[in-house]
Design brief:
Elements: H1 2-9, H2 13-37, H3 43-54, H4 71-92, H5 97-128, H6 132-142, H7 147-154, H8 158-162, H9 165-180, H10 182-200
Helix pairs in contact: 4-9, 5-6, 5-9, 6-10, 7-9
Length: 206
């Protein structure tokens, strides 16, 4: 019976991916109130856990590499998701928000984020035993506030109602700026990346 059904359906890895995603989305939709307000969890960590569980490293049900999925596709898909979320942040902010609150946003983007970048690099250097250039690269990826995670925390839960509106707006504006404004986010990462590449480039032979 099982072999006959398998021949009729001809399931592939992509089909199992659709099935897992559909079940996850339906389960989260049914139990979203309990997950958000009782367990205090949001979509990103749950989706990450489900991806790890069904991915090639654990159960092996979902293996995008087997159907031609490459890192470049993942990169472009991530750009689309972040672009939509940054656009959503801009739409949801009050009218003329930056003209009235630019000093607070600038404080979060420049000194606060620089301090967070250096502190996070210190933890990476101490815990992962890397050199300083590599630690600064990892820290540059971890320090900026992700707009997707910020939206998951500040919207749709009882906890978000306890956060003052001005703080919600400031966090949303800061996350949209440091992910949407390339000149602000990339220089630290580029500088450290050049340092690492200069150490790993092999010497040319005459």
């Amino acid at each position: 019976m099982g072999s006959w059904l398998s021949k009729q359906l001809e399931p592939t890895s992509a089909h199992f991916t659709y099935l897992v995603l559909s079940i996850f989305l339906l389960a989260y939709a049914f139990f979203s109130d309990f997950i958000r307000n009782r367990l205090h969890l949001s979509e990103p960590p749950l989706a990450t856990a489900v991806g790890i569980l069904f991915g090639p490293r654990v159960l092996g049900v979902i293996d995008p590499a087997s159907w031609g999925w490459s890192d470049s596709i993942t990169q472009e898909a991530t750009r689309v998701v972040v672009s939509f979320q940054v656009f959503t942040v801009g739409v949801q902010l009050p009218k003329a928000y930056f003209s009235r609150h630019w000093p607070s946003v600038a404080m979060m983007l420049l000194p606060v984020m620089t301090y967070g970048w250096l502190v996070t690099a210190g933890f990476v250097y101490a815990i992962m035993k890397t050199d300083w250039a590599t630690a600064l690269i990892i820290s540059a990826c971890l320090t900026p506030t992700d707009p997707v995670l910020a939206a998951a925390v500040l919207q749709g839960s009882r906890f978000s109602g306890r956060v003052p509106r001005r703080l919600r707006h400031m966090l949303s504006a800061e996350s949209g700026c440091n992910d949407g404004w390339v000149p602000l986010a990339f220089p630290p990462l580029d500088i450290c990346n050049m340092v690492v590449q200069s150490r790993t480039v092999p010497e040319s032979r005459p």
